[in-house]
Amino acid sequence: MDLIVLDGRDRRESEPLIAGIASHLGTFGIGVERVRLGRRPRRPYDAYVALIATRDLPAELRDRLDCYGGSQSRIRSRPTTLDWLRESGVPTMRWSLARDLPELLGLFERWRTDRILLKRSETFGGKGVTMFTRDRAPELVWDARKDVFCPEVDPDDGDVYKLELFGPTVLFGWTSRVPPARSRLEDGITSGLPGAYGARAPFVWPEAIVRAARVFGERALDHGHGHISLDFMRTRTGGFEAIEANLGNVALWWTTQFREFRRNFARAVHRTLVERHGAPERPAPAPTRLRHRLSMAMQGPKILVRIAQAAHRRRQISRALARALPASSGPGVSR
After folding, report:
1. pTM given for the model
2. Which residues contact residue 230 at a Cβ distance below 8 angstroms, ignoring those fewer than 6 apart?
3. Residue 190, helix vs strand vs coil
4. Backbone phi, then psi, for 330, in 5-degree steps?
5. DSSP character for 291?
6. Are the beta carbons of 193 and 128 closer than 8 angstroms?
7. Which of 79, 308, 328, 330 has a CA-to-CA distance to 156 between 20 and 30 Å?
8. Pairwise CA distance, residues 236 & 90, whole Å
């Protein structure tokens, strides 16, 4: 049994992760072939049990074998993923569609707010997010079927909390300090509000959130998604509300430094292969495991170099993100 890992990431961040997947699966006699995005595997696709993607995968591959990942042609709309969150029991922010301008203006009274966010579907990285006041609302253009409006979860707190999963398996939790969105508001309207771009730190999630998130992760896996991220913000009462779900193309540059993340990812892939594709649960015979360990040992020096290179890249990215923060985003701006 062999698995394809379709890799479209920077080698410095993806190779240590894929080596961990190969190391774990090899113990059970499962082979892993790493294929760069745009290339083809050594054998026909039907010779492999499944494909795991680290970045968006070409949609046509789903017709050739079972795939777990995101693809630009199959992006779920925001209303769809927000409904999935709610139905899974994940506490979710208030949101609404709006058919026209009068309905949009009515949301200001409904939510008792002076600022509203427009989040367009099929966008990511905050590029499709606009904050606006009532008097600037007539300037907006949106898709009434799939672009959502929402109030701020807490107007005084912009921090973002992430829960990453592969199916029902929790991979890692972390948080990023971010100034409140309204601190970037200029002249009543601003577009392009980035998400987690401040200082990052690991975060341990409450069990109640984890239980509901696992239900969501299983549902996402049923629809062919693999590595996903749920984004939350804190409420004024100290709880959490999900603001969106990222069903593919989740960044690796920061999380792959943690052995816990790499270990959980490998175990999640194995669990998926066991439960959905009949992969072996028990370790392979000793000779097979020995050959596998020797093969992995030969890759050791290269992986150590990649880990060092990734650490250097993380420092560069972190410095760039720090420079992007407004000057006012010091202690006390957000919790």
Report:
1. 0.91
2. 85, 90, 162, 163, 164, 165, 213, 216, 242, 244, 245, 246
3. strand
4. -100, -170
5. H
6. no
7. 79
8. 18
